[in-house]
Every structure is written in C-alpha cells, then in structure tokens.
Amino acid sequence: MHKKALLCILMLTLLASCGLHRKTVTPVAMQTDALLERVAQNELQWSWFSAKLTAETDNSALPTLGGRIAMQRDNVIWVSLTAMFGIEAARIMITPDSLLIINRLENTYVQEGYEALSRRFGIGLQFRDLQDALVGNGLWVLGDGEKQHEVEERRYHISNLSGYDGLWVGQNDYLTQRIHCAETYFQLDFDYGNYVDMGSQKMPTSCHLDLKGMYNLAVRVDYTSMTINQEQAFPFKISSKLKRVRI
Fold this sequence. Notes:
The chain has helices at residues 3-13, 32-42, 114-120, 127-134; strands at residues 48-57, 65-72, 76-82, 88-95, 98-103, 108-112, 147-152, 155-160, 166-170, 176-183, 186-198, 201-213, 217-228, 243-244. By secondary structure, it is mainly beta. The chain has a single domain (3-15, 27-227), classed as Lipoprotein localisation LolA/LolB/LppX (outer membrane lipoprotein receptor (LolB), chain A, Clam).
C-alpha cells in the first residue's frame, strides 16, 4: 500500500491550516484554575460513542470517504470507511496497544503496535489523547504542571508554561475550538465547529485536522447521527485470504 494513502486512512481516525492571527492580550478577570474547571465541566462525558462520518483530504487524488465510527472509552476505536456505492474500502480497529487495518481494495491488512506506529510516523499521540480529540475534548493537550491563559480574538487561549501546546475555547461557552500539539518532529492542529446538543451536553460535528512533520496531511471529518453512552459492537475479522503488509 502506498504509504501516504495508508497514512491518510490512519489519520482519518487519528481523526485548519495554521492561520496567522494577530494576538491581542487583554486583562483576564477569571483565574486560570477556575477557567480550567469550566472547560472540564463542558467536555463531553461519554463511555460509548458512535456516528456516521464523511472524510475529505487535501489530496485531490484521494476520494471523499463515508463510513461509521464507534468507540468504547479507553478500550477501542473502530472505523469502517466506504468508497463509491457504499462499498467498504477499509476497516480499522485501534486499541491502546495495537492498530489493525484491513484494506479491502487490495486484499491486504496491517497489524502493528500502536506506539511503534505512532513513532514510525513521528506522531506522539497517546490512545487516550486520540479518543478525546475525536469527540472535541482538549484538556489532555495541556499535560501536567502549571497553566496560563489569555484572551485572544474573543476566546480563551490556555497553554502550559512551555507555550508549545495550547487549547482554545469559546469565551462564552467554554467549548473547544482548537487544539495545538507540537513535539520535536511534528505539529498537529485540530479545529472544531458546528456544535450540536447531545442531551444536556454539546459536541462538535466537524473537525479539521492538520498534520505537519515527517508527513503533511490535512483532513476534514464531519459527523452525523451521533449517539453517546449506547453500547456498540466492533466487528473485525481478518480473513486467511488477506495478505499482511508492513508499513
């Protein structure tokens, strides 16, 4: 499998270009600890999640894909991607320690350790970080230690003291608008929008992912028919007819 195509399939689940903004810092009345508490209160609380999805990359050679995603918190992320006429193109299952991808178009499959694969592509994203990013929860990016914040373009920008990683939330609703994660070999941005009600909670229905580093890739994912806290199945079977390939 072409490595960039495979990376695209992965990043659709590992599911805005970085604009240059003029930063205007104004006095902030709210203390950072109080702000973090408000953000935590507005993050999606879930144990199970499912949705229909569409995914489109910035690579015109790659088609827009449809499909379905299902997750059990801290256990599994499962994705089925469909191409034209509803034909399944790939099925993906990610757990805290492994990644499985079935490529039905080429009758192949990939089975790799999740951490090893993350290092291979230069993306230092933990499983729990990924599952939270997929539903618009962003506090994970701040890590441990002291935090700081400022007002920037009618939203709060929260960061750790290093300033490398950051979280932007709405000034009125405290919902995640952007996550910025940077390490030595990569930079990853998630931009969120189109929040909808999920009972007493809210969740974004669109996410634009922008990866820069060893590989560059931009992906927009849109959700419909979302459910939370309803038990899901994760069908996944590797046929003996499939050939295993290495990344």
